[in-house]
Amino acid sequence: MKARIEEDKVLLGSEGYALYEQSGFGRPQKDGLRLSPVEALYLVYRGRIEIPGYDFDTLLVRFSDNAHMIRSFLVYRDIRERGYVVQTGPHDFRVFKRGEKPGKGESQYMVRVLSERDLIDFSVVQGEVRTTLNMRKQHVLAVVDDEFEITYYEVKLQKLPGLEVTPDPKPAPGLLSSISVIINAGADLGYDQAFYGKRLDDSRIVLSTVEAAYLIEQGLVTIQLGEATLTAEEYCARIQDSDPELDKKITVYRYLRELQYIPKTGYKFGHHFRVYSGRKIHSEMLVQAIGPLETLPMNSISRSVRMAHSVKKKMLFAGIHDEGIVFTEFARIKL
Fold it and tell me: The tRNA intron endonuclease N-terminal domain covers which part of the protein (predicted)?
């Protein structure tokens, strides 16, 4: 079956309709079938069509203005050979349920192709996920590494439900040691029950800087400096140089506490927080705070997902936006 190239499109005559009817290739037109470049590459690669003057190698070069072409071809081939029908758009690919095809079924996945070094703009990803959800599909990233291996990630937006309200601890006096805050709090004040800080002895608890900032802000911890009471803003100014990520961490910490979750440091897991739902023994989520306009390379996200998976937790990125905080979950999947 012979095809021809017109600009960035590959066209087949009316005999091409069979490729669409049988296997969902291309888009039918009045006088034949229009193939996308990646579909044409695959069909030439498999020897199902011929394009005069081109073999697979020269056709790949012909379409190499698209820097993603080799990655797109590899992902397209992989998904096709897993038994799915694939069409281009509205992201990179639309993947139908196994055994289904255009006109005779519905798509299941919307797939975006990335390299391991692509920067992830969370506002862009969140917008694409919302579009996918509005179409009632699953949003998938197909990430091609530098050795051209493919890893698939499902991306979801998570709305954390509020938990049962628990009483706040009672106010406690504190003292400032450099940037550390130690409070005088016996067991009756409720700090142990609310999982704040680490107990030094029966009467003292040392707080993390984020916990201290939050509790001072809430008026639950007071620190006297001479005749003045230290404000949350003054405390944050003191510790800012030691923690340049403080502002975004406090923003996410405050949000989680208001929903009655228990965030504790996630240092051992390489992230900002490990998060408990109520009084459960093990944390269920790792959370990384992402500031406005902040991006992360995909290989960094991959490391985060692998770590979370290894300790049986969800990996959430808490994006801070003008309209609030949006939690984005990345998880490896097998198609």
Answer: 1-55, 173-236
The pLDDT assigned to 296 comes to 96
Give catalytic status of residue 170 as yes or no: no
Residue 165 lies in a domain: no
Please tell me whether residues 13 and 94 are part of one structural domain: yes
Query: Which one is catalytic: 282, 312, 314, 334?
Result: 282
- Of 156, 184, 219, which closes a domain? 156
Residues in CB range of 9: below 8 A, 6 or more apart: 34, 35, 36, 37
CA atoms of 59 and 29, how far apart (whole Å): 23
pLDDT for the residue 155: 98
What angle separates helix 69-80 from helix 37-45, to the nearest 10 degrees? Answer: 60
Active-site annotation holds for 282 = yes
Q: Are residues 295 and 218 in the same domain?
A: yes
Instruction: Tell me what pLDDT residue 105 has.
Output: 85
* Catalytic-labelled residue, pool 91, 248, 264, 313: 313
> Where among 107, 127, 156 does a domain terminate?
156
Q: Which of 152, 276, 314, 321 is catalytic?
A: 276
Rounded Cα gap, residues 271 and 256, in angstroms? 15
If the chain, 335 residues long, is cut into consecutive pieces of 10 residues, what is the mean pLDDT of each piece?
87 92 92 93 96 95 88 97 92 93 90 96 95 95 97 97 93 94 94 94 96 97 94 94 94 97 96 90 95 95 97 97 94 94
Catalytic residue status for 321: no
First to last CA, the chain: 31
